[in-house]
Write a structure and sequence with these properties.
- Forms an energy-coupling factor (ECF) transporter complex composed of an ATP-binding protein (A component, CbiO), a transmembrane protein (T component, CbiQ) and 2 possible substrate-capture proteins (S components, CbiM and CbiN) of unknown stoichimetry.
- Belongs to the CbiN family.
- GO terms for molecular function: cobalt ion transmembrane transporter activity.
- The protein is mostly helical.
- It is built from three helices and no strands.
- Helix content is 72%, strand content 0%.
């Protein structure tokens, strides 16, 4: 197994553990909404500390239900994943293209050297033929 495959397997195992461990240990079971977002947790903590607190800003858009809010969040995550996938795919494609270009240049240089070497040998034979071969037929 290559080093990259080991690293990828370890990362995949880590991601799976991050998803399964909270569910397996029942983290958040004591709460009304066990896996509520950080915004809700912060709001609860602030109202416990200072019940008269008034927010500085209000949201630009308040979704009518939790399901729509979840759908918008999922859409945002999907768009972000798409942008990242596009970037990394583009980067990998460019790297592969550069590698192919280098390989072709090396092949072309090797072929050009072979032609030059063969051409030099032919030129030497031509020069020998015109100068005479020394076999008495001059």
């Amino acid at each position: 197994m290559s080093r990259n495959a080991k690293i990828n397997s370890l990362l995949l195992l880590l991601v799976a553990a991050l998803a399964v461990v909270p569910l397996a240990f029942g983290l958040g079971d004591h709460k009304e909404e066990p896996f509520a977002g950080a915004d809700g947790e912060a709001e609860t903590a602030i109202t416990e500390i200072d019940p008269d607190y008034e927010p500085w800003f209000s949201p630009l858009y308040e979704p009518p239900s939790g399901e729509i809010e979840s759908a918008l969040f999922a859409l945002q995550a999907a768009i972000g994943a798409g942008v990242l996938a596009y970037y990394f795919g583009l980067r990998r494609g460019r790297r592969q293209g550069e590698a192919r270009t280098r390989e072709r240049a090396a092949e072309d240089a090797g072929a050009a050297d072979a032609v030059d070497t063969a051409g030099a040998g032919d030129a030497g034979m031509d020069a020998g033929a015109s100068a005479g071969t020394g076999d008495g037929r001059d």
